[in-house]
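Figure 2 data, in text form.
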Amino acid sequence: MVLLSGGLDSATTLYYALSRDLSVYTLSFDYGQRHSVELESARKIAAEAGVPHTILTLDTQIFQQSALTDVSIDIPQDRDESAMSSSIPVTYVPGRNILFLSFGLSYCESRNLDSIFIGANAVDYSGYPDCRPQFIEAFQQMANIGTRAGDEGHPIKIEAPLINMTKAEIISMGIKLGVDYSLTSSCYQPSSSGKPCGRCDSCLLRAQGFAAAGVPDPLTA
């Protein structure tokens, strides 16, 4: 099962899983994110890849004090990478990946699936604590001891294939795997038509990645 947000990293992770000749399912979350256009991107990516896709709706009251769920909090703009990684930004969504992986764990165990793929990345990222290798390792330990699958000796594996890759490396790999990046959405505050703002942290990291990979971004080309 692949956690598919509709963004660049999760799309690449999906195609990586498919390249391993696995039977793949995808799971997305509607959690009241202001950039909900990403869910439509997730639908298109899953359809293009020919894999089953489920969108799980969470209670929007769960996530508070995040610029991604509260339109009264400004999205940071025009920041350099040092500013992005100097502290946990207001776009951090409290416990988001903990919940996503937990739901994913239940999804997999109830369907006898043996792994969860997540596009977490600890190199070109915006300072999120739930995108670091230590978090993935800790969640894996929890999954091993907190599920029947783990107790019976066949734990569900948490796979984060992009965790130590730069954005340029991710894009280069994705192009080789056949990812259509024109279907993805990375922006934290896109227009109603889905056009990226080009100024939020996510847009800037994406632009830097495509530039470093030496290929044009189909969303801005």
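Caption note: The CA atoms of residues 136 and 209 lie 23 Å apart.
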